[in-house]
Specification:
58 residues; mainly alpha; 3 helices; 57% helix
């Protein structure tokens, strides 16, 4: 998934909206972006489509 904004800015906005997310939760390891996103979806109780919509609206 490609993001319209810089990942650091997106990470900051996600942490503001969902304070239960930690820096570790949002750590992207090259090649494992989808794994990170699935873990965040699970932690927030959101589907992949819901997360895509949340990210699009930030």
């Amino acid at each position: 998934m490609k993001y319209e904004m810089n990942w650091n800015e997106l990470k900051k906005k996600l942490k503001q909206k969902y304070p239960q997310l930690t820096t570790i939760d949002l750590l992207i390891v090259e090649g494992e972006e989808e794994d990170m996103l699935r873990m965040v979806e699970y932690k927030l109780g959101k589907t992949q489509n819901e997360m895509k919509e949340i990210i699009a609206l930030l």
